[in-house]
């Protein structure tokens, strides 16, 4: 169901959030592995730190504004 401010709600929203979390986790893991195997250890550690901070405290947030 959609609320008055047009934000989606309900179980379909939680499924999307779970899928988004899974995809971003896999993408971050893939990035860290590629960086580590190509000899960029410092960059791999930095990406890992950002990923941990983003997951633990929500420090990383991306906002996309769509105008219609």
Structure report:
- The chain has two helices and no strands.
- It is mostly helical.
- The model has no long low-confidence stretch (mean pLDDT 76).
Q: Nutshell version of this structure?
A:
The protein is mainly alpha-helical. Helix content is 65%, strand content 0%. The chain has helices spanning 11-37, 41-57.
Class derived from helix and strand content? mainly alpha
Total helical elements:
2
Helix content: 55-70%
| Major sheet characteristics | none
Q: Which outline best applies? A: elongated
Strand content: under 5%
List the helices and strands in order. HH
Low-confidence stretches: none
Q: Radius of gyration, rounded?
A: 16 Å
Set down the secondary structure blueprint.
Layout: H1 11-37, H2 41-57
Provide tags for this entry.
2 helices, mainly alpha, 68 residues
């Amino acid at each position: 169901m959609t609320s008055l401010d047009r934000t989606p709600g309900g179980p379909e929203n939680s499924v999307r959030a779970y899928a988004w979390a899974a995809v971003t986790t896999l993408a971050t893991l893939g990035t860290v592995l590629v960086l580590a195997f190509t000899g960029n250890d410092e960059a791999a550690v930095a990406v890992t730190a950002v990923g941990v901070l983003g997951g633990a405290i929500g420090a990383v947030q991306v906002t996309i504004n769509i105008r219609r």
